[in-house]
Amino acid sequence: MLHTAEAISRLGTESAFEVLARAQALAAQGKDIINLGIGQPDFRTPDHIVEAGIKALRDGHHGYTPANGIPALREAVAADLHRRHGVEVNPGNVVVVPGGKPTMFFSVLMFGEPGTEIMYPNPGFPIYESVIRFSGATAVPIALEEKNGFAFSAETVLSQITPRTRLIIINSPANPTGGVTPKEEIDKLVKGLEKFPDVAILSDEIYSQMLYGGREHVSLLQYPEIRDRLIMLDGWSKTYAMTGWRLGYAVWPDALVQHAIRLCINDHSCVNAATQYAGLAALTGPQDAVGKMVAEFDRRRKFIVERLNALPGFSCVDAAGAFYAFPNISGTGLTAREAQDRFLNEAGVATIAGTSFGAWGEGYVRFSYANNIENIEAALDRIGRLLAG
Ligand SMILES: Cc1ncc(COP(=O)(O)O)c(C=O)c1O
Question: The domain at 6-44+288-388 falls in which architecture?
Answer without folding.
Answer: Alpha-Beta Complex (3.90)
